[in-house]
Design goal:
The structure is a homodimer.
Chain A (H helix, E strand, L loop, with lengths): L2 E7 L1 H4 L7 H12 L2 E8 L3 H14 L2 E5 L10 H8 L4 E3 L1 H11 L5 H4 L3 E3 L3 E3 L8 E4 L2 E4 L3 H11 L9 E7 L3 H14 L4 E6 L9 E7 L2 H14 L5 E4 L1
Parallel strand pairs in A: 1-2, 1-3, 3-8
Antiparallel strand pairs in A: 4-5, 6-7, 7-8, 9-11, 9-12, 10-11
Helix pairs in contact in A: 3-4, 8-9
Chain lengths: ~240, ~240
Amino acid sequence: VSTAAIVVIGNEILSAKIADENGPWLTRELRALGVEVRRIETIPDEIPLIVDALGRAKSQAKWVFTSGGIGPTHDDVTIAAVAQAFGRKVVSEPRILGMLEARYGDRMNAARKRLADVPEGADIDWHDGAYFPVIVLEDVAVLPGPPLLFKEGFGRIRERYRSAPLFSRAVYLALGEGDLAEHLDATVAEFPQVSIGSYPRFDVQADYRVKITFDGRVRDEVEAALAFFRRRVPEKCILRED
Amino acid sequence: VSTAAIVVIGNEILSAKIADENGPWLTRELRALGVEVRRIETIPDEIPLIVDALGRAKSQAKWVFTSGGIGPTHDDVTIAAVAQAFGRKVVSEPRILGMLEARYGDRMNAARKRLADVPEGADIDWHDGAYFPVIVLEDVAVLPGPPLLFKEGFGRIRERYRSAPLFSRAVYLALGEGDLAEHLDATVAEFPQVSIGSYPRFDVQADYRVKITFDGRVRDEVEAALAFFRRRVPEKCILRED
């Protein structure tokens, strides 16, 4: 199955300086590609915590994406952490180094040289005019934190992840969860392959009380689960579907 | 030190049906209270994954907050997971049960009875007119997922977490990270107690190239680190502070 984990590396998010855009954006992109996101972990710019999160991500999902911690300054430690997670060395990539030398000339310095560092054996996605490389090591893709770069970088590798589509249906009800639970239990028991969620609303803006969602890889199963559930609930309590 | 971890339990977030509001909101609230958030983990409604996340959260932070998975339906498994993480039984809380019986009368059923389930020995925050209890077991606070309820529930317990304030300063520069890195390294070496971050912008809307942040518990150290860094950078490249 096509599953993913997202590791967001960013003190600026944990200290509430900015809200993370990349995690929610990538979650939507992956979903549209048919990839099921299993976890999103936001952690500090600290190598041991990144290595730990990468290990968990790799063991729980097929694909792993990191956001942030790429660049020339002291708080950019993602490359070192990814290398460590794989037991690889960090090496200077000649193609990137050449590009940096052409770009910076006599403004080249130790910090800018770090931009050519990659885990040994990584695949480099690079093209003329690109501002930065996208680094992919086995199933881990390393993307920069600024949303503009994150999105452009993911765009370069997006098609690698396209999978069988995920199907999703929903029904909106005028009945509370306490009255729906037994019908949900029956539907869950009958359709173990369909992921069924129940989401109540309590705010006055809502024009329904509960949204029930049906998700799966097989369209007919998703439709059958929705139909089975609908038949059990009083027709007048069903407001709409989507 | 006052640190926190947030565990967001929600298939609806991982499947991109909604964007999580509670994690970013609670991160801002905790920061304002002087609590440093160390991790935010978004995971599915699955007991083993919740137990695993709670163990990690408890070991890496003083306070733990969960969002979601509370209610009467099959996908509401947070109470069972919290009990399991502490090796406690799930018991029916008589005060909550009494309130539910008064509220629902002859519409009481097995699903609604589940709303009185709590991990044995938990502290219950409850008052007349409250729609739901806030359950706190040792350092773990259990909050419901709908943002309206999440925020109201946190409001009841907020003052328990107030700590010594965190101080934050920032300076905005017209110079790139490659030119700033050596000055950052020097500042980091001189002020090990201050957390220093470097955040470049690449979008045309930005009126600066890099924002450098200084965070710490001691105001004088934060101010001294900022002043030390400023002295090393050409004055004309400093655009503003906040």
